Predict the structure.
Amino acid sequence: MTDQTVVVSNLRDTPHFFDAVADRIWRAWWEQQGFPLSHITCLLQDSLTEDAESLCLVAHDGDRFVGTASVIASDLEERPDLTPWVAAVWVDPPFRGTGIGGDIVLRAARAALDAGAEAVHLCALPGKRAFYERLGWRLDEKDVGEDRLDVFSMRRT
Ligand SMILES: CC(C)(COP(=O)(O)OP(=O)(O)OC[C@H]1O[C@@H](n2cnc3c(N)ncnc32)[C@H](O)[C@@H]1OP(=O)(O)O)[C@@H](O)C(=O)NCCC(=O)NCCS
């Protein structure tokens, strides 16, 4: 990460960022589909539980929210057999392009692998292929589902 004042914390240790994380995830992926914010707050509550499979990381500069990425058990209806996934990767626009997104994605992947997963998965629109491949994600599938998503994986080395 280029900006040394930005650090990454587990949301469990920084619960005051809960509302900011829920807000960004909801606005980016759920609001337009008609889901209420409460749908996301319920899902996000899981990542606050110590023994849950899910994890939420927050990048922040002091008390200012910068970005987030999560590890969740399932993310793609068409691939119910794959788990876990890195999902909900978001960096606030003023902080983009300085390596924060790449850093938080890799930290989330490492957390999933360190927790015992043989592989961790990620799905994204094809427009983000270069971003993820540059970070070392392996492109396993293209054109999955209605949104024609790429499916990537990262394995333990
Ligand atoms: C994708 C996102 C998380 C990247 O965050 P970031 O902090 O800018 O990421 P980084 O700084 O680590 O990487 C930026 C680099 O990747 C490139 N990049 C960023 N988004 C890209 C994209 N969609 N496709 C290809 N390359 C991309 C940039 O050109 C930049 O390249 P450079 O370093 O050569 O200039 C951020 O743009 C974002 O929040 N987007 C909206 C939400 C989103 O699309 N999330 C991903 C869902 S799969």
Observations:
- The longest strand covers residues 64-72.
- DSSP finds four helices and seven strands in the chain.
- The two ends are 22 Å apart (CA to CA).
- The helical segments are 18-30, 37-46, 100-114, 129-134.
